[in-house]
Amino acid sequence: QQQVKQSPQSLIVQKGGISIINCAYENTAFDYFPWYQQFPGKGPALLIAIRPDVSEKKEGRFTISFNKSAKQFSLHIMDSQPGDSATYFCAARTQAGTALIFGKGTTLSVSS
Amino acid sequence: DAGVIQSPRHEVTEMGQEVTLRCKPISGHNSLFWYRQTMMRGLELLIYFNNNVPIDDSGMPEDRFSAKMPNASFSTLKIQPSEPRDSAVYFCASSYYGASDTQYFGPGTRLTVL
User: Fold this and answer.
1) How do residues B65-99 score in pLDDT, each as one tens digit?
2) B46, closest residue in chain A (CA to CA)
3) Mean pLDDT rounded to a whole number for chain B
4) What does each C-alpha distance from A110 to A14, A58, A107, B16, B71 come to in angstroms?
5) Smallest Cβ distance to B91: which of A43, A101, A105?
């Protein structure tokens, strides 16, 4: 119940293409769903986040789509760039002040 | 503003030795989290503190692991005795719950136990 399942494990996208990473969860008590980006040798950093009362959130080239009934959410990266090559983690938590539960991560490679 | 500070950045030790990892959270933050990252298990929570009090340590692997937060600006994660399977990157993160959900991660400590 506490798991967040992320797919695919790895993704190769051409420069300018759309990258899509999917996550699914079971715990309906989750109320905050962030995506973190991690570059090699660095700690994860918050990229974008959404709450379940909203179906979509967009920040620049990054969009989260959220489907509450299906208990799924996804990250879309439009016009993917080589600088987007990193590992992306979806996460969820039940309430403020609690720890994040992370998906296993997706390694994205954007080829030029 | 300085981010989360972790030391050391790299640690190589031999099996059976004691290892102490250190973390300084962002000033003003009242939640602190210790995570471990491995290829096999991904990012997993070890323990977290709110206002210096341990809230959930269910992720601590076993009695060999212990964590303390003596004050709002310092935390340690200790492994005694260390084993090769403890080799991983250990991250500390902090946040200010009540005002923001964002957890800010430090650069991590890469631990290698030979």
Assistant:
1) 999 999 999 999 999 999 999 999 999 999 987 66
2) A99
3) 94
4) 6, 20, 10, 42, 43
5) A43
Question: What is the spatial distance between Cα A64 and Cα B8, in angstroms, rounded to a whole number?
Answer: 36
In the beta sheet, which residues pair with residue B95?
B31
Task: Give the distance from residue B46's alpha carbon to the nearest chain A alpha carbon, in angstroms.
Answer: 10
Q: Give yes or no for a contact between B104 and B5, defined as CB atoms under 8 angstroms apart.
A: no
Verify whether the Cβ–Cβ distance A102 to B44 is below 8 Å. Answer: yes
Instruction: Note the pLDDT tens digit of each residue in A38-75.
Output: 999 999 999 999 999 999 999 999 999 999 999 999 99
Instruction: Using an 8 Å CB-CB cutoff, list chain A residues near B105.
Output: 36, 43-45
Considering only A80-89, A98-107, B14-23, B81-90, which range has the smallest mean pLDDT? A98-107
Closest CA of chain A from B51, distance in Å? 10
Rounded to an integer, what distance in angstroms lies between the CA atom of residue B50 and that of residue B37?
Answer: 22
